[in-house]
Amino acid sequence: MKIAVIGAGGVGGYFGGRLARAGYDVTFLARGEHLRQIRQNGLRVKSVNGDFIIGNAQATDSIHEIGPADIIILAVKAWQVRDISGRLAPIIKKDTIVLPLQNGVLTAEELAENIPSDNIIGGLCKIISKVESPGVICHFALDPIVIFGEFGSRGTERAELLKSVFDRAGVNSLISDDITAELWKKFIAICVSGLLAVTKTNYGELRELKETRQMMTELIREIYALSQHLRVNIEPEFPDKLISLIDTYPRETTSSLTRDVWDGKPSEIEYQNGTVIRLGEKYGVATPVNRFVYNCILPMEIKARKNLPSKGRNL
User: Fold this and answer.
1) Which of 20, 199, 236, 251 is deepest in the core (most CB within 10 A)?
2) Residue span of the structural domain in which 138 resides
3) 311 in a domain, yes or no?
4) How many helices (H) and strands (E) in the chain?
């Protein structure tokens, strides 16, 4: 079975590394110094669950070199999906499974603009990880899990196949009967990232100060209200459960969007709080805290995209 991991960052590097370690034929799409180090020294994964190295990791910066794949794990940033989906055709077969693991709720829709929707299965992951240095992935919090499921009435055969693949690799995974609800639950949680960026706090600092904890609570409840307007099947207790979960995050942790904003890099703000306010406007749901977060980050996002070299705009 051939697996293509499109994007070898904190998500793709970790999960792809686990699959390669289990003996699967995995090829990573990477670029720059990260690619050079993977080719020269292998892919190193530092994890709270145990470190490992894929010494003979296969990596390339050319999608064409990967060849037809049985499974494609899409692990680029959300803002890169639309462009890269238009370049996946050479590695997609009739029965190829495309598993996107982006933050947000628009990925499948954007993928379907360029690849057959029948190839796409809904997916998300939960992990706190990052590229620590070129060729080195650091997983530093949360027990990783991949959740996936069909959007329509299609059977679960390929979902079961995916689960068997992750099971063999020792990766915790779950087949969801309502992947849309799962995507929205993660979406609600991840949108706190923008508030971390604006307040220059980690999760511990954000939740411990009364004023910022209140902002976090209001931000979460705004998005939950939006989900209910869209008839997403999320239980009424979810906002409180999410806040309790955030209370268990290691105090010093942040998120990828937060770090990207702080580092002056392009972020997923349009696919997180930006999506919230656009959907809120469309359906008449007020989202003032999310609008505040988005508006504060927008000037930094514009600068980051202007400063991005053309060759770095996509993977």
Assistant:
1) 20
2) 2-177
3) no
4) 14, 10
